C-alpha cells in the first residue's frame, strides 16, 4: 500500500508533493482549466448567483428542522418497500452493512463512488470480512488497484499521469495481451469498461452514496457521468445506500435547484450525464431492479457540528470546487492533507471528524485568499471557519510553542503603541542596513522559509504608521 | 436507546426543537420557484433549444414526421452506422406505433437488457430543453437496464413532450401519480452518452453506460405531422 500520509505531518507531505513533478504538472493543469472554465460556466446561467442563494436557503431551512425531514424521509422510504438503518458512527455503519451482506448471502459487492464510504473506511472492513469489493467509478477503480485514496472529491485520480495508470492496468490485468496499446485515455477507459462489466453483472450487492435524499418522496438522488451508479443500483439483488444525515432536502423541487449548481461547480457541466431519483425496491411487474433497498443514515459527528459555530459546513454538497480553486491545494494536492477530504473543505471538516489534536496543521495551510468561499456554491465561509479552528488550536496549545511565544510577544507589543512604533523603527533601520546597497537580504531572522527560495527586499521609506501620518498631514494641508 | 433515538435527540438538542413538534412551516422560498429563463419559452423555441443542448452533449438526433416512420428511420440509422440489426426494445405497448417489427432487416426482442444486448430502443417520458436531457423512468413497460447496458441507446421522443425545465418534466411524473400509480422506482435525467474525465481530465465518451445516445424526435411541438 502506498503509505498513508497523516494530517499532522503536513509540512513533510508538502515537501514531498512539491518535489513530485508529475503531481505538480497535473495540479497546474487542473488550476489552469478551472480558472479558464469558471467565467464560461457561470456566465451561461444568469440565475447562477440567485440559485446559490436559493440552495443556501434550502439547506438552512432543512438543518433547522432536520429531525422532521429525516423522519418524513424514513416514513416514505419504508412505504416504498425500503429499510432505513440509523447509525451513530463509522463502526455502527460498517457493522450494519456487513450484516445486510451476510443476511443476503452476498460474496461480491460493487461500489459506486461515495466519499462517506471513504470516511468510514468501508472497503477494507468488508474485505477483511471475506467479501470481494470492487469500485466501479473509473477513477476509484484505478485507485483501488493502486491501493491509494482519492485526492479530490470529484476527480479522485487527478494526481496520476496516464502512463502511471497504464502501468497499473498492465500489472493487474495480466490475462490481457501485454503488448496491447494503452497510450490514450480512451484505450484504458475501454479496458476498464470490459473488466468492470463482468463485475457489474456478477455483484450480489451494490453500494452507492447519495448526493441528496428527498424527504417528501423517500427518494435518493445519485449523479454520475459514467453510468456506473445506475448499473450498480439496478443489477445486484440488493442495493445499499450510505448517506450522512445532512444530505436530506425537503422536496423534489429543492433537489432540482441544487442540481443546477452542483455539476456546474464540480466539473463545469450543465448537469451530469445521469441524474437518478430512486425510490425503494423493485415494484410488482418491474423486469429489473433490486429486490431489497437499504438506506444507512449516518451521523458520524454531524449532530455535533449542527449545534456549533461549524454548522455551515453541513451545507457542503461535495462538489470539490474549493479544492480546484485553492492555491494551497493546487501546490500540494489532496493527499498531503492526510484526511479523507483535502483542500479547504478538508481543512475545516477533518478537524471536526478526526479531532483538532490530529489535524490542527490543516487550517494553518491557508493564505485566506478567499478563493474557496468565492466559488463555493453553498457560500460556506471556509476562511472564517479555518480561522476559528486556528484559534481553537492555539488555545488548546496544539500549535508549535515557538509560534505561540512569538504571537504572545507580538500581542504584548501591539498593545503598547509607543513601544511598538519605536521597535518597528529600529527593526526597519536594522533591515535597511543589512540590505546595504543591493536593497535586499539573502537571509533574515525569523524568515528562513522566505529567504530559502528568494531574497527579502529591504524596507524603504519609514514604518507604516509614520507613512500614514505623513500622508494625512499632506492631505490636510491641501 | 436506539441509534435512531440518539441521533434525533441530539438534533433536537442542537436545534432547540421539541420531540412533539408539528411539521415546520413551509419555507418562504417554496412559493417562489426559481426557474432559469432558458427553461421557458414558446414550444417551438423549446424544441430548438432541446436540440441545441442535446447535440452539445454528443447525443445525435434524427427527426421524423410521425410514429410510423420511427422503425424505418432506426433501421436506416443502424445500417448507416454499421451497428447490426439486433435490438432489444421496451415492452411498453406505446412502442407498437413505431412499427419496429415491420422495419426491414430488424430483429427485435422485447424485455430488460442483458450484458449481451448491443442496441436498445426505449420511449421517453419527456425532453428537457434547458439542458437537452431526456427523462425516463423504470416501469414494467420500460425496464431500467435498457438505458444503461447496451452500447447504443436509441430513445424515441415526441416533440410535443419537450418541456422547458426539470420541474415541468417532473410535473408529468406527478400527473401519472394522480391517477393512482406510485412513483416509479427510478426517474432518470439522461444527458448525452456516458463519459469520464478521470484520466488526466481528458473527456472520454462511453464508459459504463452507452457509448452512443441517439434520439429519434417525432413530429414537432404541435404533434405529429402525418
Element layout with pairings:
The complex is a heterodimer of chains A (478) and B (226).
Chain A: H1 10-18, H2 21-43, H3 48-64, H4 66-79, E1 83-87, H5 90-103, E2 108-111, H6 115-119, H7 122-128, E3 132-135, H8 138-146, H9 162-172, H10 185-202, E4 205-208, E5 212-214, E6 219-224, H11 228-232, E7 238-244, E8 248-249, H12 252-266, E9 274-278, E10 292-298, H13 302-307, H14 321-325, H15 327-332, H16 343-354, H17 371-375, H18 382-395, H19 401-414, H20 417-435, E11 440-441, H21 448-451, E12 456-457, H22 464-477
Parallel strand pairs in A: 1-10, 2-3, 2-4, 4-7, 5-8, 7-10
Antiparallel strand pairs in A: 5-6, 6-9, 11-12
Helix pairs in contact in A: 3-12, 16-18
Chain B: H1 3-15, H2 43-56, E1 60-64, H3 70-81, E2 86-89, E3 107-110, E4 119-123, E5 126-128, E6 133-137, E7 152-158, E8 162-163, H4 166-178, E9 186-190, E10 195-196, E11 204-205, E12 212-218
Parallel strand pairs in B: 1-12, 2-3, 2-4, 4-7, 5-8, 7-12
Antiparallel strand pairs in B: 5-6, 6-9, 10-11
Amino acid at each position: 500500500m502506498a503509505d498513508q500520509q497523516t494530517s499532522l505531518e503536513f509540512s513533510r507531505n508538502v515537501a514531498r508533493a512539491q518535489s513530485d513533478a508529475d503531481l505538480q504538472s497535473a495540479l497546474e493543469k487542473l488550476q489552469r482549466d478551472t480558472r479558464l472554465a469558471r467565467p464560461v460556466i457561470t456566465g451561461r446561467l444568469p440565475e447562477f448567483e440567485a440559485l446559490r442563494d436559493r440552495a443556501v436557503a434550502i439547506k438552512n431551512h432543512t438543518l433547522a428542522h432536520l429531525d422532521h425531514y429525516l423522519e418524513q424521509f424514513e416514513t416514505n422510504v419504508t412505504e416504498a418497500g425500503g429499510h432505513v438503518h440509523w447509525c451513530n458512527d463509522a463502526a455502527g455503519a460498517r457493522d450494519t452493512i456487513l450484516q445486510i451482506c451476510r443476511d443476503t448471502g452476498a460474496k461480491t459487492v460493487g461500489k459506486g463512488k461515495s466519499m462517506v464510504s471513504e470516511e468510514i473506511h468501508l472497503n477494507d472492513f468488508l474485505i477483511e470480512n471475506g467479501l470481494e469489493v470492487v469500485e466501479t467509478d473509473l477513477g476509484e477503480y484505478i485507485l483501488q488497484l493502486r491501493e491509494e485514496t482519492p485526492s479530490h472529491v470529484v476527480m479522485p485520480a487527478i494526481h496520476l499521469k496516464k502512463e502511471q495508470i497504464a502501468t497499473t492496468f498492465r500489472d493487474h490485468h495480466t490475462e490481457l495481451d501485454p503488448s496491447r496499446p494503452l497510450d490514450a485515455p480512451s484505450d484504458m477507459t475501454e479496458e476498464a469498461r470490459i473488466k468492470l462489466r463482468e463485475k457489474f453483472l456478477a455483484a450480489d450487492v451494490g453500494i452507492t452514496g447519495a448526493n441528496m435524499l428527498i424527504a417528501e418522496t423517500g427518494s435518493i438522488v445519485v449523479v454520475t457521468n459514467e453510468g456506473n451508479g445506475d448499473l450498480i443500483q439496478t443489477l445486484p439483488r440488493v442495493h445499499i445506500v450510505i448517506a450522512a444525515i445532512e444530505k436530506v432536502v425537503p422536496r423534489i423541487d429543492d433537489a432540482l435547484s441544487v442540481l443546477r449548481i452542483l455539476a456546474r461547480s464540480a466539473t463545469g457541466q450543465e448537469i451530469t450525464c445521469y441524474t437518478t431519483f430512486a425510490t425503494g425496491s423493485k415494484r410488482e411487474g418491474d423486469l429489473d431492479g433490486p429486490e431489497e433497498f437499504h438506506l444507512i443514515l449516518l451521523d458520524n459527528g454531524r449532530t455535533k457540528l449542527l449545534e456549533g459555530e461549524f454548522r455551515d459546513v453541513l451545507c457542503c454538497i461535495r462538489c470539490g470546487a474549493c479544492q480546484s480553486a485553492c492555491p494551497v491545494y493546487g501546490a500540494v494536492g489532496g493527499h498531503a492533507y492526510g484526511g479523507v477530504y483535502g483542500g479547504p473543505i478538508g481543512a475545516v471538516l477533518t478537524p471536526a471528524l478526526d479531532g483538532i489534536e490530529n489535524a490542527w496543521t490543516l487550517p494553518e495551510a491557508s493564505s485566506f485568499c478567499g478563493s474557496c468561499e468565492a466559488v463555493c456554491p453553498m457560500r460556506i465561509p471556509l476562511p472564517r471557519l479555518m480561522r476559528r479552528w486556528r484559534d481553537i488550536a492555539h488555545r488548546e496549545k496544539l500549535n508549535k510553542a515557538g509560534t505561540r511565544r512569538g504571537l504572545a510577544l507580538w500581542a504584548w507589543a501591539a498593545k503598547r503603541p509607543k513601544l511598538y512604533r519605536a521597535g518597528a523603527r529600529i527593526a526597519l533601520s536594522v533591515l535597511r542596513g543589512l540590505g546595504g546597497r543591493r536593497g535586499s537580504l539573502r537571509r533574515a531572522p525569523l524568515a528562513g522559509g522566505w529567504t530559502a527560495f528568494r531574497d527579502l527586499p529591504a524596507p524603504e521609506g519609514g514604518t507604516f504608521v509614520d507613512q500614514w501620518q505623513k500622508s494625512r498631514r499632506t492631505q490636510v494641508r491641501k | 436507546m436506539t441509534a435512531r433515538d440518539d441521533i434525533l435527540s441530539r438534533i433536537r438538542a442542537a436545534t432547540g426543537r421539541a420531540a412533539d413538534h408539528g411539521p415546520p412551516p413551509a419555507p418562504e422560498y417554496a412559493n417562489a420557484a426559481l426557474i432559469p429563463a432558458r427553461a421557458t419559452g414558446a414550444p417551438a423555441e423549446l424544441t430548438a433549444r432541446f436540440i441545441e443542448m442535446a447535440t452539445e452533449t454528443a447525443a445525435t438526433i434524427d427527426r421524423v414526421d410521425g410514429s410510423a416512420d420511427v422503425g424505418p428511420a432506426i433501421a436506416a440509422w443502424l445500417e448507416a452506422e454499421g451497428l447490426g440489426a439486433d435490438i432489444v426494445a421496451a415492452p411498453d405497448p406505446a412502442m407498437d406505433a413505431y412499427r419496429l417489427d415491420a422495419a426491414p432487416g430488424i430483429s427485435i426482442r422485447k424485455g430488460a437488457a442483458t450484458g449481451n444486448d448491443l442496441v436498445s430502443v426505449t420511449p421517453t417520458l419527456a425532453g428537457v430543453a434547458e439542458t437537452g436531457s431526456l427523462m425516463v423512468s423504470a416501469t414494467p413497460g420500460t425496464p431500467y437496464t435498457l438505458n444503461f447496458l447496451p452500447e447504443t441507446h436509441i430513445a424515441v421522443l415526441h416533440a410535443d413532450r419537450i418541456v422547458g425545465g426539470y420541474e415541468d418534466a417532473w410535473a408529468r411524473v406527478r400527473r401519472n401519480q394522480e391517477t393512482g400509480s406510485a412513483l416509479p422506482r427510478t426517474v432518470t435525467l439522461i444527458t448525452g452518452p456516458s463519459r469520464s474525465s478521470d484520466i488526466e481530465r481528458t473527456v472520454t465518451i462511453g464508459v459504463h453506460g452507452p457509448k452512443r445516445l441517439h434520439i429519434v424526435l417525432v413530429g414537432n411541438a404541435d404533434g405529429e405531422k402525418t
